[in-house]
Write a structure and sequence with these properties.
alpha+beta, six-stranded antiparallel sheet, 31% helix
Length: 271
């Protein structure tokens, strides 16, 4: 598992480049993202919110995101998703807090005082700027769908769009555990900015320091594989999909949908 707090953003960009170049299905990262890229935001439930201080928020947030990620993967690949590591979406996930858009980094020693004064915001003394933490920490993620799963994702996405306001690209993906978790997913839109800009926004929390207690600020999924091993499995899965003919592919007259639906076919989300 690749995690840390002092990793340069160039590493994340180069990691994405290495995956799409290895798969060989798109000439550029922008092209791959336009076809298979997703931007994901997860808000953790309030009762998970830093019970032992902000240094625990990374672990708690990523633990929750992993549950959501696996739920999404199961919806995409079925219950045997654990045996399909190469088809799972390659994902860079980043911790964030409300109010960090104008920050270049955060001081963990200052943030740790939040546990004694929740909900009132916190002064980052080193920058004389208020860091609003009245809401909850959240996760931004950049997700690369495997080309073989795009058709399934599009079908499920269209079901969820029926329950979304017209003209809204972002959908709420149903996750029922932990209760209160919100997972929003939208396809990458190059008209809103390029991949570098999106990556800069997602990872904007930057470096978090403080007395050797660095806060976990990112994770890479599938978290049981290095990017190199994932790429090898993803290429193997892609080659298998390419050699399959329409006659050998599994078929069904009624495509499986993991969501509860109403009479009009719209997804029924939790209250």
């Amino acid at each position: 598992m690749y995690t840390g707090s002092n990793t340069p953003k160039r590493f994340f960009y180069n990691t994405l480049i290495s995956v799409i170049e290895g798969l060989g299905v798109a000439k550029t990262l922008e092209d791959y993202m336009s076809r298979y890229g997703l931007f994901v935001t997860m808000h953790v439930p309030k009762y998970f919110w830093m019970p032992n201080g902000v240094q625990d928020s990374g672990d708690l947030s990523f633990r929750t995101f992993r549950i959501c990620y696996l739920r999404f993967v199961q919806d995409l690949l079925g219950k045997r998703y654990a045996k399909k590591l190469g088809l799972q979406p390659f994902t860079l996930a980043f911790l964030d807090f409300p109010g960090t858009r104008r920050q270049t980094g955060l001081d963990l020693d200052s943030l740790s005082g939040l546990s004694a004064d929740r909900g009132k915001g916190l002064l980052d003394a080193s920058r004389h700027n208020w860091v609003s933490l009245r809401d909850r920490p959240h996760i931004h993620a950049i997700m690369l769908l495997h080309p073989s799963t795009k058709e399934t994702f599009d079908r499920l996405y269209k079901v969820l769009q029926r329950s979304t306001a017209p003209g809204t690209a972002r959908v709420r993906w149903p996750v029922y555990s932990p209760p209160g978790t919100l997972l929003h997913i939208e396809p990458f839109d190059p008209e809103k900015g390029d991949v570098k800009r999106l990556l800069s926004y997602a990872s904007k929390i930057g470096i978090v320091t403080g007395a050797g207690r660095d806060l976990k600020t990112f994770e890479i999924y599938p978290d049981c594989l290095s990017p190199e091993v994932y790429l090898a499995k993803a290429k193997e899965a892609l080659e298998l999909a390419l050699v399959q003919t329409p006659q050998t592919r599994p078929s069904s007259t009624t495509p499986y949908c993991p969501f509860k639906q109403d009479s009009e076919g719209s997804a029924v989300l939790e209250p």
